[in-house]
Design brief:
It is a single chain. The chain is mostly helical. It is elongated and about 55 Å long. The two termini are about 35 Å apart. α1 packs antiparallel against α2 and α7 packs across α8. Helix content is about 60%, strand content about 0%. It folds into two domains: about 80 residues, Endonuclease Iii, domain 2, CATH 1.10.1670; about 100 residues, Endonuclease III, domain 1, CATH 1.10.340.
Length: about 210
């Protein structure tokens, strides 16, 4: 569960910033920051690349096809992300550009660029390494920092949802400046904004 001191700091800063923002964080309450769900940076990047610019439903469908294709060959998904399986991946719905990006992640991993020492770097330096890989941009680097390395102070300025919710709750367009007030816990602020969006999303009725 989130450290009470961090939660109190977020509430205090939100109260001084915007009533609606304070109400949103208070309504959610202290959150739990889940540990990374992937065993390595490469595994996280594989998923992020496949998911890029897709709806959650479409991304899940494509990844499920990749898993099925790998299982049919007695392999894991990562075993398909090397030259020779382009047709298989394209058949799963992976674009040609994303296939090349998946290859690039495997190559970066083989060159030792995605080892545990990556987590010791400041986010800016880590992002520079990640963005040097084909298909990996600032948004993906931010997601890796927040959800894989659990960096508490990343503001994902390229994330439409986080920026949009903060703008809505504060009435301000200078969202990076607003988020700066929450340093060194801007990643935690972003998590609250995502949860606020999810809580406000209309429920989907079962067919």
């Amino acid at each position: 569960m989130l450290d009470p001191k961090i939660y109190d700091r977020l509430l205090s800063e939100a109260q001084a910033t915007s009533g609606p923002l304070h109400a949103a964080i208070a309504a959610i309450g202290p959150i739990a920051v889940a540990p990374p769900v992937h065993g390595s940076v490469a595994e996280r990047l594989f998923v992020e690349i496949v998911n890029q610019q897709l709806s959650t439903k479409a991304a899940f469908a494509i990844w499920s096809r990749i898993e099925a294709a790998a299982q049919a060959q007695g392999a894991s998904p990562r075993d398909l992300f090397v030259p020779g399986f382009e047709t298989v991946l394209r058949g799963c719905g992976v674009s040609a550009n994303k296939v090349r990006a998946l290859h690039a992640v495997r190559e970066a991993e083989a060159r030792g660029l995605l080892g545990a020492d990556l987590g010791l770097l400041p986010h800016a330096e880590r992002a520079a390494v990640l963005c040097g890989i084909r298909g990996v941009g600032p948004w993906t680097a931010d997601m890796v920092g927040i959800f894989h390395f659990l960096d508490p102070d990343i503001w994902p300025a390229g994330d439409i949802a986080a920026v949009g919710v903060l703008r809505k709750l504060t009435g301000r367009d200078d969202t990076s400046a607003v988020a700066a007030r929450f340093a060194p816990y801007r990643s935690i602020l972003a998590r609250y904004l995502w949860r606020s969006r999810d809580a406000a999303a209309p429920a989907v009725e079962a067919a």
